[in-house]
Amino acid sequence: VLNRTGSFFFNYISIILEPQFVGSFDVGEHVYFFFREIAIESNGAERSVYSRVARVCKKDIGGRVVLRQVWTSFLKARLNCSISSQYPYYFDRIQAVTRVETSDDTLFYATMSTPDTAFVSSAVCVFSFKSINQLFHHGFFADPNSPTWLPLPADAVPEHRPGTCVPNSHTLTDTDLHFAKSHLMMSEPVSGGPPILPTRDVVFTHIAVDVRSEQNVIFALDSRTNTLWKVAHWREGSTWKWLELERREIAVGGPIKAMTLLPGEFLFFASRSAVTQFTLAGCSMYPSCALCAVDPYCSWNVARAACYPREKAHGQSLGWISSWAGRGSSECSASAKPRPLAAYPGDSVHLVGAVGGIWKRDGLEIVPSHRTISTADGGLVIMDVSREDNADYECLLNGRQVIKYRLLVDH
User: Fold this and answer.
1) Which residue from 107, 72, 93, 275 is spatially nearest to 181, judged by alpha carbons?
2) Which of 19, 180, 289, 302 is 20 to 30 A from 135, alpha carbon to alpha carbon?
3) Residue ranges of the alpha helices (H) in 313-399?
4) What are phi and psi for residue 136, nearest 5 degrees?
């Protein structure tokens, strides 16, 4: 494969430019490659980088004369991961990819980023195996003779459609091979749907996905800061939804070079000098039922008002609340009581909240000031408290209360 790949790029450098591969997968009679490259079809003066998926037949041995020792079935298409608007915001640089099997499809979860500028952003997009094959089997080819790479009319495609697997590629005619040689790229992209977890000032360099009964749990890592995001991803009808569950820094003694998953149990991180094991059930960090119960690895104990690793028995046991992101944490409402917090005049108090949450005081949203400061992890710090600060403070995430405090400043 390496020799054939090298030969391909050497002979057709005008078609595939400076590729950087991030993953390959064996599925059925094909091998699928995910990579980024210089986009020859972009119209800008600067060299643009696009992400691609490519496919080749496993039994492809090249042509007899034309495309000798070169793949005859190679096709590629752009991967579209973008925020829709009048001027779409593209995440064009694929960084990592992993494969997930579902009951009716194969999904490829990929981390994508914008170009390396002062405003770099990242997101996760999900590409369907069925959508990829639908495009390769029935989509229009890009016309290399068109200045803007317009779709090639369907009646211009020969009977042997490029990319079709055959028992022996030596039997293909020179006419078919000359056409395949010049029509490697599809006109339309493969859509990754709405981006998951679009985030500024990060580059998600690694990804892993743990498949649970109700949802998939995405782990995305920025190895520049060794920060890990945990995100729930689930389907409601024909719509996919997501919810950020957790964000934390991983202490591994240097930049993380590799990340791998033991499903349902651990993540492993490797730096140049060490390997670190990280439990998926980081339950002790959740301060409330609403945050704990939607984490698929945790359950909330009502009597102890604390979060513990989830066990199968918790689902049928009294005093335990176990939910998931798609169902929400409505069961927590009955047990939710304001947490008393005592302080003295002049103290500073720190209220633990949720990343992305908003804070309210007695039902009114708090505006940050020199005395009320929002923290990066979703908390709230109130400086130099006085009796005027006596009130109920609640943190809401996506409109739902995740924790509530009752502050009492006493002389």
Assistant:
1) 72
2) 19
3) none
4) -65, -35
Pick 368 or 96 by higher pLDDT: 96
Q: In sequence order, which ranges of 233-317 are alpha helices (DSSP H)?
A: 289-293
Residues with Cβ within 8 Å of 364's Cβ and at least 6 positions away in sequence, in order, are none
pLDDT tens-digit series, residues 307-336: 999 987 776 777 888 888 777 667 787 666
pLDDT at residue number 114: 93
Q: Where are the beta strands (DSSP E) in 349-399?
A: 349-351, 358-361, 364-365, 372-374, 380-382, 391-397
Domains of the chain: 2-197 (2.130.10.10), 205-280 (no CATH), 283-334 (3.30.1680), 337-409 (2.60.40.10)
Structure tokens at 67: 């495309």
Residue length, the chain? 411
pLDDT tens-place string over residues 69-82: 888 899 999 999 99
Q: Burial of 386 by CB count in 10 Å (0-12 exposed, 13-18 middle, 19+ buried)?
A: middle
State the average pLDDT over residues 10-24.
72
Q: Each residue of 273-303: pLDDT tens digit? A: 889 999 999 898 888 888 888 899 999 998 8
Is the pLDDT at 6 greater than 60? The verdict is no
Backbone angles phi, psi at 319, to 5 degrees: 90, 0
Distance CA(156)–CA(220), nearest Å, equals: 43
